[in-house]
């Protein structure tokens, strides 16, 4: 396997010939579309040579129940677990199902030997995380017990094999109550043959300030949950300034801190399967970036005829272009096989349990081929 970065004057024919591979394989693996143009700075996955993975990796990927069947079928061979997004709940402990039927996705996951996981989220009526909902449930033993019983019944009815607790913006004063809630859930799950994971905001110190961080005790949650996902993405986000979504220098800081609190055998690294397109100039409180897929980002660069740059600090690709319809400049940050390889290297360096993708709704073939070159997928 090689990662080749396109240079000025390259053609697909010259690249394929230099590696002795079929040009159609390069086109297919990198999801190039006719007339198969490429641009300088574009990173290509080149298959070939002998596969030498370093070991097994647990791989999860969040999916909504409206994911395209073809995309899911293409992705499942590369997954160990499929967290399905998501179930909500009321203050009384009743479950709120997703708007779309999830039975078909559960059945399909099982056919590929992938564990379907129930993702639990505290959304309010507007679809946002509600720390007030969290507080009212985790501080009410009756609501907690009812919610756990409802979860167990649903898992038995539908065939879920585990639960992922994705609670965000937990109040600082609810930190210990949240840990106790996770402990109760995890114990009940284990008694019934299921496992429990928790999604963690990306802290880099124990006392990190901010609503995302103060309500989660890494060490305590590491003791009670079976495994945990570091949500190491969203440094670059919809309402923030243009920057890498998952800069490796920041990701490394989170992993290094997490390992002081949680055993490596319980830790999964979060990986984004998307990028953002910002309109410049950025205005705080006004600007709103557009989400786009990684393959889509490369096609945008090709259509605009602009070179793709690579930031050496964040180890992330980016480019700028002018929208001719508006005359406005745009800045795009995304993931490619170069940036992904740095994350796989980090997983190997620290011996982490696995990785988890947010999310798998768009097919990015080169990512999965690269993952398979690095690891055997745990099933």
Ends apart, CA distance between termini: 23 Å
Average pLDDT figure: 97
Please tell me how large the radius of gyration is.
Answer: 21 Å
User: Strands of the biggest beta sheet: in what spatial order?
Assistant: 5-4-6-7-8-9-10-16-3-17
What is the overall number of helices? 12
Uncertain parts: none
Annotation, overall tally of beta strands: 17
Q: What's the helical proportion of residues?
A: 25-40%
Q: So what's the overall shape?
A: globular
Largest sheet: 10 strands, mixed
- Helices and strands, in N-to-C order? EHHEEHEEHEHHEHEHEHEEEHEEEHEHE
Structural class: alpha/beta
Strand content of the residues, in percent? 15-25%
Describe the structure.
The structure is a single chain. With 379 residues, the chain is an alpha/beta fold. The chain contains twelve helices and 17 strands. Helix 9 links the parallel strand 9 and strand 10. Helix 9 runs parallel beside helix 11 (337-350) and helix 11 packs parallel to helix 12. The radius of gyration is 21 Å and the shape is globular. The protein starts with a strand and ends with a strand. The model has no long low-confidence stretch (mean pLDDT 97).
